[in-house]
Design a protein that fits this description.
Length: 254
């Protein structure tokens, strides 16, 4: 019921977006939340202040995505490359999942959001794991927006792990190279249960993928903005979706 309602709202009550039946709302939106450190520097604050401010933006974007009828929101929270940052910053970053969930989990449950994760959970501290696993567990039966956090995620690592798993199965005689197709390969990735992103958003003026969902973004639309992540809000998100709709309509017309 709740799911239907949000779809209905997306089509008929959102006046800043196209309101037809074929509204072309992107079903899966992925975001590279960049510019937190730069935001802090500009204000003469330590980098961690930027990360804390950036965390507050997530709630706004989740609400808007849910309201528009987006089905999956993937957020790049921590990359495998982030371990190279100063130890104090890494330690602070890895406290953010529990901080975020401590405040937001009840609200996410209220909004029928289902939390899931992708990334290597092996090297994460125990306290981080406990918090995220609790969130996944407590939202497991929710049927609304899927909120997919990329945590300790790297796309090349993901692809290599898929390759290794396939190699093992071939060696065990459980499959042959002829069984490898785009569809079957996708099933070995961390997004096996998810459709590919329709739209990628990256903030802070950087125009690159930085090892994010290389396989899954093969056919996605990209939207870049100079806005730094802590300054990003639901209006910017709506604008990105509107640009996506316009592009989708143009292709539809051909
Ligand atoms: C992090 C805040 C957002 C801006 C980008 C970097 C800093 C939320 C989470 C999170 C992760 C998993 C989860 C629940 C919340 C998070 C990290 C950094 C490492 F299940 N924000 N946020 N995790 N930042």
């Amino acid at each position: 019921m709740l799911e239907k309602f949000s779809k209905w709202k997306a089509n008929f009550t959102t006046n800043d977006l196209t309101t037809s039946e074929e509204s072309n709302i992107p079903k899966h939106v992925a975001i590279i939340m960049d510019g937190n450190g730069r935001w802090a520097k500009k204000k003469g604050l330590p980098r961690i202040a930027g990360h804390r401010e950036g965390m507050k933006v997530i709630n706004k974007v989740v609400r808007k995505a849910n309201e528009l009828g987006v089905e999956i929101l993937t957020l790049y929270a921590f990359s495998t490359e982030n371990w190279k940052r100063p130890k104090t910053e890494v330690e602070y970053l890895l406290k953010l999942p529990e901080r975020f969930l401590g405040i937001e989990l009840p609200k996410l449950i209220e909004q029928n959001v289902k939390v899931r994760l992708m990334g290597s959970l092996e090297n994460l501290p125990e306290h981080t794991l406990r918090a995220v696993e609790k969130a996944v567990y407590e939202t497991r039966n929710n049927t609304g927006l899927v909120l997919n956090f990329a945590l300790n995620y790297g796309s090349r690592y993901e692809i290599l792990e898929a390759m290794k798993a396939i190699g093992k199965q071939i060696q065990a005689g459980e499959m042959t190279e002829d069984d490898i197709s785009e569809e079957s390969f996708s099933q070995y990735l961390m997004t096996a249960e998810l459709r590919d992103p329709d739209l990628l958003i990256r903030t802070s003026g950087e125009i690159r993928l930085s090892n994010f969902m290389l396989w899954q973004l093969a056919y996605s639309e990209f939207w870049f903005t100079d806005v730094l992540w802590p300054d990003f809000n639901e209006h910017h998100f709506t604008e990105a979706v509107a640009v996506y709709q316009k592009r989708a309509r143009r292709y539809g017309g051909i």
